[in-house]
C-alpha cells in the first residue's frame, strides 16, 4: 500500500563534503599574501576533513550530548571529572593533531600566525566549542614561556599534537590542556574585586601557595591545569598555575560544584569551582596577577575574533548554498533581487571580518622578537579589544540573518544554523564583554600615545584621497588627541568608527575592488548601521561578491 501523501521537492540539504578552504578563495588569497602559502596543503587537508558530513555529524552529537559532571566514582571517592561524548574527543584529536594550535610557538616560518588563525577559522565553521580549550591552552603558552622552569616542565606537553584526555598528573602525560580562572561571583570584569586567597606555603615569598575561594566560570574544568588569579595577604593579586593533581601525586582540591547549563557552546564544559586549599604555583611576578593573566587574555581575544569570523563564514556559506538551489516564486532565491542584497551584505561583512582577524593575527607575529614593530604593538593593544567588540557583535546579527535565509529550516535543531545562532553571543560575553572592550580601547588610547599615533598614520595613509574614509578618520581626531571622561559614554561609537575604518583600509589594500568599494559604499553612506540587506544593490557588483564568497564550482588548482 502506498502511504505517501506527497513527494518531497525543493528541499535543499546543507552543504557538506567539501574542502572548506577550497570553497574560500578569499582566505586562500589572504594566506598567500601573508606568507603562509607553505601552510596551504595542510590546511586543504584539514578543510577536507572538517567539511565531511561525518565531521558535521560529530559536531552535532558532541553538542546534543554535552558533558556531564561526575563528582564521585562508583565507590564514593571524589573525582570531580567531566565525561564527554566520544565525538568531542574525536574533534579535539582532529584539532590538536593538525598542530595549528601550537603552530605560532613551534614554528619560526613567516606566516605562522596567519596559518594558525586559518586553522581556527576552518575548525570554528564546524564546531566552535572545541575552540575554547584550544584557545586557552594556546593563550597560556606565551605566559608560561617566560618562566624557564615552568616552560621546561610544560613546554613540550603544550606543543605536543596529541589529545590526551586521561585524568593523570601532568608528569605522566605526553600532552596537556590548560584553562583560566578569573571570574568570581561578585564581579567578572572587575577582577580587582576577586576574593579568592592564596596563602604561601612555608615562607611568605614562596611561589607555592594554597588557594581558597571560588570561580564562578571555569571553562574546561577537567583540563590538566588552569591559570588562576588569587589575592595574597599583602592584598595584591597574583597568578597561579593550579593543576588537577598536586606534585605529591594527590588529587588537587579543586571541586567542580556544577556545570553551567549554557545557551550555546554546549559541547564544551564550563564549571563552577571551589578551591579548598588547592595547591598552586605562582606564575609571573607577585602582585602582578592582572597583567600576567591579561597577556593570556589578549591572545584569547584574538581567538574570539577568529571564532566569530568562523561563525560568520559558516552562516554565509550555508545561506548562499541554500539560496542558490531553493526556488521561490519561480526562480532561485539567490536570483531574487532583495535576497541578493542580503547575501551580498553578509558576504561583505564576512570578508571584512576575515581581513581584520588575519591582520590582528599578523600583528601577534610582528610583535615578537627584540625589536617589535610599533604598528604591531598598536594593533595588539588598540585593535584587539576594538575588533573583539565589533566582530563578535556582528557575528550575532549575521547568524540570525543567515539562519533566516533558510527560512523555517534554519530555525530547527537539525540545521547547523540553529546551533550557530546559539553559539554566537559567547565570544562577545567572555574574555571582556562589549563595553569592557570599548573602555579598554579608550584606556589604551590614553596610555599608548606612540602606538596610537602610528596607527593613525597608517590609517591616514590607507584612506588615501577617498573622501568618505577621510571624513571618518577626521571624526576620530578628537579622541585621538587623548580621551576625556566624556568619551566613556561614546566608547562604542568610537570603537565602531575605528573598526569600520580599519576594515575599509584593509579591504582597499588587499581585496578586489568589488569588495572594497562595496564595503565603503554600504558602511560609510547615510543608511549605515541598519539591518543586513538594507542597501542599494546598484552600488554593488553583487555577482562578483557572491562568486567570491562561494564559487559555484571551485576553480581548478585550488
Ligand atoms: C560560556 C562562558 C564561559 C566562560 N568561561 C570562563 C573561564 O573559563 N574563565 C573565566 O575566568 N571566566 C569565564 N567566563 C566568564 C566571563 O569572562 C565573564 O562572564 C565576563 O568577563 C563578564 O563578567 P561578569 O559575568 O561578571 O559580568 P559583569 O562584570 O558584571 O558585567 C556585566 C555587564 O556590564 C558591563 N560592564 C562592566 N563594567 C562596565 C563599565 N565600567 N561600564 C559599562 N559597562 C560595564 C559588561 O560589559 C557586561 O555587559 C565565561 C563566561 C561564559 C558565558
Mean pLDDT: 96
Ions, cofactors and other ligands present here are: flavin-adenine dinucleotide
How many β-strand runs?
A: 11
What structural class do helix, strand and pairing data support? alpha+beta
Unreliably modeled segments: none
Major sheet description: 7 strands, mixed
CA gyration radius, whole angstroms? 24 Å
In terms of quaternary structure, the protein is: single chain
Taking the alpha carbons of the first and last residues, their distance comes to: 50 Å
What overall geometry do the principal axes of the alpha carbons give? globular
Helix content: 40-55%
DSSP helical segment count: 20
Strand content: 5-15%
Family: Belongs to the acyl-CoA dehydrogenase family.
Organism: Ideonella oryzae
Domain Adaptive response protein AidB N-terminal: 10-165
Protein name: Acyl-CoA dehydrogenase family protein
What are the main properties of this structure?
binds flavin-adenine dinucleotide, alpha+beta, seven-stranded mixed β-sheet, flavoprotein, 558 residues
Structure description:
With 558 residues, this protein is α+β, with helices and mostly antiparallel strands. It contains 20 helices and eleven strands. It has helices at 25-33, 40-51, 53-64, 86-97, 103-106, 112-123, 131-145, 148-159, 289-325, 337-366, 374-405, 408-411, 416-423, 426-429, 434-447, 449-463, 467-480, 491-510, 513-523, 542-549, and strands at residues 68-72, 78-83, 178-181, 197-200, 208-219, 225-231, 237-243, 254-259, 270-283, 327-328, 331-332. Strands 3, 4, 5, 6, 7, 8 and 9 form a seven-stranded mixed beta sheet that branches. A two-stranded antiparallel sheet has the order 1-2. It has a two-stranded antiparallel ribbon with strand order 10-11. α1 (25-33) packs parallel to α10 (337-366), α9 runs parallel beside α11 and α17 (467-480) packs across α18. The protein is globular. 50% of the residues are buried. Bound molecules: flavin-adenine dinucleotide. Residues 179-183, 187-189, 217-219, 262, 265, 270, 426, 429-431, 433-436, 439 line the site of flavin-adenine dinucleotide (FAD). Flavin-adenine dinucleotide binds at residues 179-183, 187-189, 217-219, 262, 265, 270, 426, 429-431, 433-436, 439.
